[in-house]
């Protein structure tokens, strides 16, 4: 090549200038993470030198692509805007997609009609892939995605046999560490407020609670377990139930910071001091934990990094059309504050 071009530069010319294969150029343009930094820099330099502009319409038509990803949250908008977890996930996803050509389409599914409409949307292949947040075990969407061979990544999973790609946190280990911390501080009547039991994440955190209690030589006591729903009102309701059953409770592990905030409000109403009378631990280490009074000890899960990783895994599946599913579990960490 002599550096002079007649007409529009081609993908092949970019590959020659960069000293890489045509497929590598395509992966860089499509935002695939499976390209070395050196190759990516060479391709980007060649694109700049040649003035190459991808023909998006032709590329989409040839590859049956839409350059769009659906972010699906099957929860009411009251939860979406009230809970920091969702905003952190969205922030991470958006950051990972920022340097790609992908458009992110936020979809809330609250009714059977909305679910049916979205299923039709997927069947028409209006998006290249799906990110699904807040997974319930009876949700038919993951199975539909598999049937359609649609690239998809779940935030969490439906069970330990999940067949769809997912990014999760170590919920069992995090909960176990939280309860072990309460017990190590001398608390002996430690209760838990769970999430909805149709969610694997909630069952994992309950398993972690039970493992810690068993490891301490304490017997299982169902009166110390109250079901919540990951909302503040659910935390309030569950805390009232626990106090009615077992007034001597001296420690509580809430499976989310939002429910811990609800529990804290009830404890205050009942004249119970935190941590003097009742120690309290949450899960997520959200802004809510840091701004509670007293500041809440909580299990930190890397929520924003979970969002980034979900987007990264999905981009790989879209670019490579790989049949191998990826299962990623990120570590958690107990952050100690004044509520214990």
Automatic annotation (TrEMBL):
Transmembrane segments: none annotated. Keywords: DNA-binding, Transcription, Transcription regulation. InterPro entries: HTH_LacI, LacI/GalR-like_sensor, Lambda_DNA-bd_dom_sf, Peripla_BP_I. Residues 9-63 form the HTH lacI-type domain. This is LacI family transcriptional regulator.
């Amino acid at each position: 090549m002599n550096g002079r071009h007649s007409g529009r530069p081609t993908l092949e010319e970019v590959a020659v200038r960069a000293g890489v294969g045509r497929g590598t150029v395509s992966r860089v343009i499509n935002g695939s993470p499976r390209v070395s930094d050196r190759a990516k820099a060479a391709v980007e330099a060649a694109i700049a030198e040649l003035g190459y502009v991808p023909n998006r319409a032709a590329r989409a038509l040839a590859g049956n692509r839409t350059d769009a990803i659906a972010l699906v949250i099957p929860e009411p908008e009251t939860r979406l805007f009230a809970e920091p977890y969702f905003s952190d996930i969205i922030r991470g996803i958006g950051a990972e997609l920022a340097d790609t050509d992908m458009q992110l389409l936020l979809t809330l599914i609250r009714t059977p009609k909305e679910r049916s409409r979205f299923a039709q949307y997927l069947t028409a292949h209006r998006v290249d892939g799906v990110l699904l947040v807040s997974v319930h075990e009876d949700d038919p969407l993951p199975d539909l995605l598999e049937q359609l061979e649609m690239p998809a990544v779940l935030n969490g999973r439906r069970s330990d046999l999940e067949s769809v790609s997912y990014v999760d946190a170590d919920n069992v280990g995090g909960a176990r560490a939280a309860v072990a911390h309460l017990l190590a501080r001398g608390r002996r009547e430690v209760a838990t407020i769970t999430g909805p039991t149709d969610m694997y994440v909630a069952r994992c955190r309950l398993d972690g609670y039970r493992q810690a209690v068993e490891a301490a030589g304490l017997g299982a006591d169902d009166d110390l377990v109250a079901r919540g729903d990951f909302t503040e009102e659910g935390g309030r309701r569950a805390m009232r139930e626990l106090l009615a059953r077992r007034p001597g409770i001296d420690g509580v592990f809430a499976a989310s910071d939002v429910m811990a905030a609800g529990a804290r409000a009830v404890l205050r109403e009942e004249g119970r001091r935190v941590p003097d009378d009742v120690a309290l631990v949450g899960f997520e280490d959200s802004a809510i934990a840091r701004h509670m009074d007293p500041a809440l000890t909580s299990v930190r899960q890397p929520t924003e990094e979970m969002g980034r990783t979900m987007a990264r895994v999905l981009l790989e599946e879209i670019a490579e059309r790989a049949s191998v599913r990826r299962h990623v579990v990120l570590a958690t960490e107990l952050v100690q504050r004044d509520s214990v």
